[in-house]
Structure formats: C-alpha cells, structure tokens
Design goal:
The protein has 150 residues and is α+β, with helices and mostly antiparallel strands. The protein contains 5 helices and 6 strands; from the N terminus they run βαβαβββααβα. Strands 2-5-4-3-1-6 form a 6-stranded mixed sheet, sandwiched between helices. The longest helix has 11 residues. The chain is globular. The chain starts with a strand and ends with a helix. The chain binds a DNA duplex (12 and 12 nucleotides) through loops.
Length: 150
Amino acid sequence: MPDCWLLKSEPDVFSLDHLRRKRTAPWDGVRNYQARNYLRAMHAGDRCIFYHSNAKPPGAAGVCVVAREHYPDHTAWDPASPYHDPGDGPEVKRWSMVDVRFERAFARFLPLDMLREDRQLAGMVLFGRARLSVQPVSPAHFERICELGG
DNA sequence: GCCAACGTTGGC
DNA sequence: GCCAACGTTGGC
C-alpha cells in the first residue's frame, strides 16, 4: 500500500501547471528537517496532493506521483541558488529532494476553506501544522480529496 | 502588507 | 541545554 502525501508550493514560483508542462520535476528547496524526513520516506509511486500555498485562495490543485526517490538536493551547494545553504555541500548532503511527475489537475480547485469545512477531512496535518510543506496524508483523506476534486 | 505561529540560531 | 532574538511561512 503506497503512502500518500501533500506537497505545498507557491504557484507564483512553481504551480501544478508548471509541473504539467514539464511532466517531471525535482521537488527542490525544502529546508526544514521534518519535511526533509518525509521526503526521504517517500517511495516511487506514492501519490501526492499538489497544494498551492500563498495563493488567492490557497488550496489543493491536483495530484502528482513520486517518480524518483530521494537524492541529495544539490541546489543547497550552489551559492547562486535561492536555496543555497552555506552549511551544506557534497560531503554533507544535508538536504534531499525527490522527482515528481504530473498526474492530473482536479476538475475543481479545492480552496483551503472548503477542505476545512469537510467533516471527513477533520484532523488533516494541513490544518494543524500550517507551516509544514511536506506532510503525510491518510489514504482516507487522500481519497476524499480526490472525490471532492473530481 | 500585516502579523501570528513556529523553526532555527547563537550567546551564555 | 536554555531561551531570546530572528527569520520565514502562509493565511488573511
């Protein structure tokens, strides 16, 4: 049974449409240890809700799939990268990323408000740990979100 | 643009 | 190892 996840991205920076056009893309730039640990726990084939944060409105846009399991996020080693971490390097490999592949956009975008109001989605990490950008989603919650998204 | 929540850093 | 200061996230 594959695990389910939720990935947040600011659509101004990288939206589900960007991923649709690229088909597959690295999920780079995660600089939080708990989120990184979840990236490392992902398996190829795991499905992820693609969530648009810092958007008007924020919400769930669609689904993507883990296409390649975790490997070092080398953007941390590049001084020119916005994701540069001076404390990291090829010998340290502090941060990780996975590759994700576009699966589908929901027929209906699901605003955060709507997700919050849905009683079947009570207890989602999204509502309690607002700042965690990579988070696990229970299979039941995942299925419910797909059902709402159409 | 504001600001609350909260993760990280660094002095002690 | 504590905790204040600081920076970032992300909803509003």
